Amino acid sequence: MKIEILQFVKGATEARGIAVIIDVFRAFSTACYASDAGAARIIATGSIDEAVLLKRQYKNSVLAGERNEKKIEGFDFGNSPTEIIKCDLSGKTFIHTTTAGTQGLVSAENADIILAGSIVNAAAIVKFVRLAKPENVSLVAMGYRAVIAAEEDLLCATIIRDALTGKEEKYEKEISKLRTSAGKRFFDPANIDFSPPTDFFLCTMLNKFDFVLKGERRFDGNVDLQRIDV
Q: Which residues 6+ apart lie within 8 Å of 7 measured at CB?
């Protein structure tokens, strides 16, 4: 099994085999919490206009997402797990667009299988990949706004790679350190309305969920995320 760690949208376009598109803060953590809250379907899209169009097509749907970390005007939710855990999304279609993560999903056109990756379901991803036994695994750290390397995404990629290669490590210290580095923005009082401290803790709960979110390309270029328990 060949494992590569790539970055940003360019990395997503280069991904082969199983592509794990990683966005810890906060896209794919939020998506996991949405699935846990009962969402019947998650649709990832790179475009705000496309998200609005999708909402017209799916009556029992909600819009979630961000630009510049803040909730998009007219959307039901931002990109915040803290918002999602308060809600019952049973039976709803969760339409999701973000600056980094969902851009990576729709860009991974050369991969055979696409997974949405985060710390909260890292072990489930490892289990899924082991069962699939691919020749190639591309771990794509999407980064902050898809242009700046993000410690949390690279750490998640490392956690998955180490587990796949049989390297047993403990990551509690590395995860904790994120609070004073990449995650310090969650503790800035100026950001509390759209990026609260609870988001940091919800996004860094290692292996909270035992399912993966597998991407299926749609006819319209967007991506359905299917929950698979492993």
A: 140, 141, 142, 143, 149
